[in-house]
Automatic annotation (TrEMBL):
Keyword list, A-Z: Cell membrane, Membrane, Transmembrane, Transmembrane helix, Transport
Protein name: Transporter
Keyword Membrane belongs to the record: yes
Transmembrane segments: 39-56, 63-84, 125-146, 158-178, 198-216, 223-242, 248-269, 281-304
GO CC entries: plasma membrane
Organism: Bosea lupini
Cellular location(s): Cell membrane
Single GO biological process annotation from the record: transmembrane transport
Length: 306
């Protein structure tokens, strides 16, 4: 199993390393990468979610069990983090970054790894997982920023931010199309499929380009705390939840995989916009991306069903 996991993760690691090398070597101008991230976040990844959810054959899949497992684990870990805040001793801004680092996940890496490990069955399961995780994580993070971020958004601002989140909205649209039974028109279906296929390699190249080694030396202790929550506490909570909801097979493996992923680089954007500790968030992203090379296989080996 170890060899299969490492083989599945190898292309992901290589794409991340390739993106980092291109950024370091100035193969493309620095202005390219923010635009590529914007393209991935607002166009390519939403296209992937809409296509996957709208066209997926969900018959026979444990949709409810998978969604409940993921949501229960995220809510439980989030509650523990909030309860532990007085004992952590971090500033309010720093806590928002630790919170994001503990519960957010990298869609690009997860979708690529799921496809490599589970094959054709991965995309419908991954679409269900994203439909459960993305709204839950975004709502919880926005609420934490509303309480402890310096921007202090209003209720109207919170609702507007959720309504304009492209990943959340693409999941809602994909689910609506799936429930309607209408499917996607042939021309639209092909267009969304092509855009979605482009999201994974471009997204992973952007992850590599965004690696900030200098940020690793700043705020190391809270970054380590966030990483311990992400790579130890979250997978353990997910394992307990999947046992409680009776989830097994490939869906259980995917649940462990998604909950052991490093935090998304989009967390840095949220930290800047809502008054968090953006430099600390950058350090957490960089550290977790590196640690994930060991932490993700370990979580799958120890906790995923054989």
């Amino acid at each position: 199993m170890i060899g299969a996991i490492l083989l599945a993760l190898a292309p992901i690691a290589l794409l991340i390393a390739f993106g980092h090398a291109m950024r370091r070597l100035r193969f493309l101008p620095d202005a390219f990468w923010p635009q590529a991230e914007r393209l991935s976040y607002y166009v390519l990844l939403p296209a992937l979610f809409i296509h996957a959810l709208a066209m997926a054959d969900l018959r026979g899949l444990p949709v409810a069990e998978l969604a409940l497992t993921l949501i229960a684990a995220i809510v439980a870990v989030s509650a523990l983090l909030v309860l532990a805040k007085p004992w952590l001793g971090y500033s309010d801004a720093a806590f928002t970054s630790v919170f994001q680092g503990g519960i957010r996940f990298n869609n690009y890496v997860g979708l690529s790894a799921a496809g490599s490990m589970l094959g054709a069955s991965a995309l419908p399961l991954a679409a269900v997982a994203n439909a459960a995780i993305v709204p839950t994580v975004n709502v919880l993070c926005v609420l934490v920023f509303a309480r402890w971020g310096s921007a202090q958004p209003t209720l109207r601002g919170i609702l507007r931010g959720l309504a304009l989140n492209p990943l959340l909205m693409s999941c809602v649209l994909g689910i609506a199309i799936q429930l309607s039974g209408l499917g996607l028109p042939p021309g639209v279906e092909g267009c969304l499929k092509a855009l979605g296929q482009a999201s994974l390699p471009i997204g992973l190249l952007c992850v590599g380009a965004a690696l900030d080694w200098g940020a690793l030396g700043r705020g190391l202790k809270p970054a380590l705390v966030a990483s311990a929550v992400k790579f130890v506490l979250m997978p353990l909570a997910t394992y307990a939840a999947l046992k409680g909801f009776g989830l097994g097979g490939p869906a259980a493996t995917l649940a462990i995989l998604f909950q052991a992923l490093p935090t998304a680089s989009s967390s840095y954007v949220m930290a800047r916009q809502l008054g968090g500790d953006a430099p600390l968030m950058a350090g957490i992203c960089a550290l977790q991306t590196v640690v994930a090379a060991v932490a993700v296989p370990l979580a799958l080996i120890l906790l995923a069903p054989g």
